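Box 3.1. Reading complex inputs
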Amino acid sequence: MKSFNVRLSEIIKVKKSHLCVGLDINPERLNATSSSLDDLKAHTFRVIDATRDLVAAYKPNLAFFERWGSPGYQWLEETMDYFDNDVVIIGDAKRGDIGNTAKQYAKSIFDHFGFDAVTLSPYMGQDSITPFTEAPEKGAFILCRTSNPSAIDLQSLPTGKGLLFDKIAQLAVQWNQNDNVGLVVGATSPEEISRVRGNAPGLPFLIPGIGAQGGDLTKSMIDGNIDGIALINVSRSISFAGDLSKSAIRNAAQDYVNKMRDLMYES
Amino acid sequence: MKSFNVRLSEIIKVKKSHLCVGLDINPERLNATSSSLDDLKAHTFRVIDATRDLVAAYKPNLAFFERWGSPGYQWLEETMDYFDNDVVIIGDAKRGDIGNTAKQYAKSIFDHFGFDAVTLSPYMGQDSITPFTEAPEKGAFILCRTSNPSAIDLQSLPTGKGLLFDKIAQLAVQWNQNDNVGLVVGATSPEEISRVRGNAPGLPFLIPGIGAQGGDLTKSMIDGNIDGIALINVSRSISFAGDLSKSAIRNAAQDYVNKMRDLMYES
C-alpha cells in the first residue's frame, strides 16, 4: 500500500490542484436567523458538490461538528460518506495526548470516521504522535508554526538552537519513519515557510490562513512547493463565498485553483 | 456566580476529598471477549455509583467516547446526565486551536455537554485559550508538565529563562484573569510539582499519573497542596479495580481517599 505522503503527492499531480477546502460550517455564517442541523448538512454537501473536481483534499474541522454533540458527529459521519475516493480527507482535530489515549483518538479518526490524515499538537512529544503514524497509509500533520496571532507565544521562543517551531520541524523529520508525517505552517507568517522547509525538506506542508485570515497565497505556493509539496487550505472564503450558492462557491474555488495553477505551471 | 477556582476549592473542602476519578472506559479493559457500547455504559454508571460520595471531581476522557463516533457521544451525553451537582466535571479534551475554532469547542464542551472545566494544550498560545476562560464559572486546566515519558521532548527544552513548562506556568498566571485557570502537572515527575508551584502560586493543579502510570501520590499531595490546591486524578486503578465489581471499585477509591486524608488531615 502507498504511503500517505506518496498518495498525497500523486493526487496533487493528477488533479493539478494544491487546494484543500476546509469545512468549518456554522450557523452564524449561513446568514440565516436560525439554521437547523439539516441546513448545515445541506450546505456541507453543497460545498462538496461544488468543488469535487477542483480539490486535492478536504479538511473537516471536528470542532464545528462536535459543537452539536452526537447529532453533530452523525452529520460528520454522513459527510465522510459523501466524499469521493480521489481526494485526501484530513481530520482537523489537533489532538495530542498520552499514548493510551492517543490510541483511542487514532481509532476514532482513522478507523471509525475513516479520515486519511489528522492534524496533531506536538506539546506532549513523540509518544502522543506514534499511534497516528504506525499505518503508513494514514498521515499526520503536526502543528509547527500556526496561523493565529498568538502562535508566537510559544512557537517563537528561543530553545538554544533556533526557535521552538524549528525544533518541531526537526523532530517531525525524525518521527517520519513511515513517510506519512507532514507539518502545519501558517500562510500568515509567509517568511517562515522557507525557514520550516529548511528544517524539514521533503515533508508535505498543510498551509492554512489563506482567505479570511489574510495569508499570502503567492509566497505560500512558491516557497511551500520548493523541496516538497504544499497543500493550501481555504475554508471560509470558499465555503461561505458570495451568496452561498453552489455557483458562488465553485467560482471562488476555481479562482483559487487558477491562481495556484498560474503560479505552478506558468509557461 | 462563584469562579471555577473558588468552587473547586470549596468542593474539595466540603467533601474532604482531593480525588478526581478519570473515566477512560474501553472494552479491552473490561475482560470481556466482546463488549458492546451498552456494557461500557453500564460500567461507566457502575464507577460513578460506586464513588459518588468519595470524589471531588470526575474527568471523562473524550477520546474514549469519540472512538465510537456519534453513538459514543450519545453515551457521553447520558454520562453527563448521570453526575451529581456537588462535584466538578472536567472534560479531558486537550483541545487547542485558533480563536474561531476554539469558540466552537467551548460551545461543545461547556454549552452542549455541560462540563465545568476542560483540559487545554497551550501550543497555539493565548488566543486558543481565551474562548474557554471568558466565563469565570468555567475552568481551564492547561497542560504544563505532563505525565507521559515523551513529555520532555518539548516541555523540558530550555527557553532562555527556565524550561518551556516554566514559561507555560508563568503564562497561565497571566491568563488567569477570571480566577478559573489551572495547570496539568504529572505525578510521574514529582520533583517538578514544587517547581511549577513556584511559578504559579495559587493556581489549582490537576495531577494525573497516579496508579497505572506509576506516579508518586505522597509527594503529589504534599507538594501540590502547598500555596494552592491539587486535584489528584486516578483512572484505570479505580475504574478497572479488582474484579470490576462496584465494591472493588469503591474499595479502590476509598483506599486512595484514606491515603490522601491521612496526608492532609493527620492529627
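In summary: Residues 4-265 of chain A form a domain with the TIM Barrel fold (CATH 3.20.20.70).
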